[in-house]
Specification:
This protein is of the alpha/beta class. It has a single domain, classed as Protein-Tyrosine Phosphatase, Chain A, CATH 3.90.190. 48% of the residues lie in helices and 7% in strands. It has a five-stranded mixed beta sheet, with helices on one face. Strand 3, helix 2 and strand 4 form a beta-alpha-beta unit. Helix 4 runs parallel beside helix 9, helix 4 runs parallel beside helix 10 and helix 6 packs antiparallel against helix 7. The protein is globular. The chain starts with 19 loop residues before the first strand and ends with a helix.
């Protein structure tokens, strides 16, 4: 439990529902992740003027956008005095689901879970360079940074898990943070499409099985999580120590 005096984890915004702070969690050596340094979010294209003022007051200086090219084209944004970094990860699970539905396949919830798990395994492999770039940005400066995708749940969820685990936050706590999306995220109206409701419930929410599919894949890397950080994301012991110095108190 966090003391009542700590900042709110969920940042209340009219134009984004899943914008939250990664601060406050106990990490390496019992030190806590600093508040108001690293944020995760859904897309930022619908922010109101009041929302933008709120983010300015928080000192947000950098925004990392994991969305695909079409997603950015449809829902683009700019934020005054905020550096924007595009780290493209295409939403393959949505594309594959659409292809199956257009081909007349009656997609089931079980198949949707399998698609999501495959997507998360893809984060670990072919999308690893984008997450390596996120760590490079975090290591370059501790200027407040938000990373996001469209819903702030999958690409963003895996990124948040990597960052928190690298800072020594226990895996069960990381999973709790990941699952907060199911409480906070407001799905846009009018996006039902041809998929059955039970399939949409899979695609628009998060499950432990999704993140575990990625983390189990990471664990199978030589050296486990530490080996993956060093060998794939270029976050070696020195970088881990710098991360801790920048983001733990």
């Amino acid at each position: 439990m966090l003391p009542a005096s700590t900042p709110s984890r969920s940042v209340p915004l009219a134009g984004a529902s899943n914008f939250r702070d990664l601060g406050g969690y106990a990490g390496a050596g019992g030190r806590r992740v600093k508040w108001r340094r690293i944020f995760r979010a859904d897309h930022l294209a619908a922010l109101t003027a009041e929302d933008r003022a709120h983010l300015a007051a928080l000192g947000i200086a950098r925004a990392v956008d994991f969305r695909g090219e079409h997603e950015r084209a449809v829902l683009g944004y700019t934020l005054p005095r905020v550096e924007q970094h595009v780290l493209t990860i295409e939403p393959t699970v949505v594309q594959r689901a659409q292809q199956l539905l257009q081909a007349g396949h009656a997609l089931t919830a079980r198949e949707a879970v399998g698609l999501m798990q495959d997507t998360y395994r893809g984060f670990v492999g072919e999308n690893a360079p984008r997450f390596a770039q996120l760590f490079a940005l975090l290591l370059a400066s501790d200027a407040p940074l938000v990373f996001h995708c469209t819903a702030g749940k999958d690409r963003t969820g895996f990124a948040a898990a990597l960052v928190l685990l690298a800072l020594g936050v226990p895996r069960d706590v990381v999973m709790q943070d990941y699952l907060l999306t199911n409480t906070l995220y407001r799905r846009p109206e009018g996006l039902a499409g041809p998929a059955p409701r039970e399939v949409l419930e899979v695609l628009w929410r998060v499950q432990e099985d999704f993140l575990n599919a990625a983390l189990d894949s990471v664990d199978r890397h030589p050296g486990g999580f530490d080996g993956y950080l060093a060998g794939v994301l270029d976050v070696h012991d020195a970088e881990r120590l710098r991360l801790e110095a920048l983001y733990l108190e």
